[in-house]
């Protein structure tokens, strides 16, 4: 685990000394957008036109943020259009690597680099910052498009529709305000909340994260008791953003990150909803529990010094979801 400082790698754990033991996530720095005609998106520069075989996605199968991008690539029919490389789940002193020490790890298909940091350095040789997944690369210009998952999923949602003919919209105009409201609470207290609980280094910082996390899970349980999906009858971006955290919850966040007031399995509506989302075509193939458990338990030495990876739980996400009684789109 480390970061780049003026282009040099420094092996260093997250700094919580100046924040009362609280984990603060850095903002992603590469924020360009792929658009149908190459016009600039909401941030960054223009010049990233949607084209087949032009863009490459770097992911970890363990990472919930990268998982969002992989799911949108599958749902939107982009598997033949956007290629992928998969890093090792073992994130040690060199950060993300392509070391073949685990099933499912691929080469860096573009450059054959050993370390993901060297891909970032091809864009910005003097970069300062964290080397994170997902990372979206433009093969035509030889530079990074984006390393912000919330924006990558929006590009995938609508940028390539003319090429794929897929018009499914997970961020529909009439629901945008509601989706953004749900996203904001889910991001702060759930998606990032589990990390804030897990990486806290004081009791106060841990409780400041874990209490609101469970308040939000109770709120989500109420929402999903009344509705098939978070913003109504059909799945939207808000559901997929929650999905990648909850599918990991009982396996890693409950134990490793001490988010153990309840399990997702203890919430009937969240459990049924999670199964229904998992059972959508193409989604189960993006879920790799071996990468998930191994990454968290074996990489975070400060939290789990023995690096022993627990053998459970073994939930059955293929079991009947029972959500048919709620109206579907
Ligand atoms: N804001 C980013 C966050 C991505 C992120 O933090 N990914 C983690 C893996 S789950 C990572 O690569 N961490 C490495 C590090 O922080 O050094 C996004 O949503 O795309």
Would you mind describing this structure in some detail?
- It is a single chain.
- It contains 10 helices and 6 strands; from the N terminus they run βββαβαββαααααααα.
- The mean pLDDT is 96.
- The protein folds into 2 domains: 2-164, Glutaredoxin, CATH 3.40.30.10; 173-325, Glutathione S-transferase Yfyf (Class Pi), Chain A, domain 2 (Up-down Bundle).
- It starts with a strand and ends in a 30-residue tail after the last helix.
- The chain is of the alpha+beta class.
- Helices cover 36% and strands 8% of the residues.
- Strands 4-3-5-6 form a 4-stranded mixed beta sheet, sandwiched between helices.
- Strand 3, helix 1 and strand 4 (82-86) form a beta-alpha-beta unit.
- The protein has helices at residues 64-75, 116-123, 149-158, 161-164, 176-191, 193-199, 203-226, 237-253, 268-278, 289-299; strands at residues 2-5, 8-11, 55-59, 82-86, 135-138, 143-146.
- It binds glutathione.
- The site of glutathione has 14 residues, from helix 3.
- Glutathione binds next to helix 3.
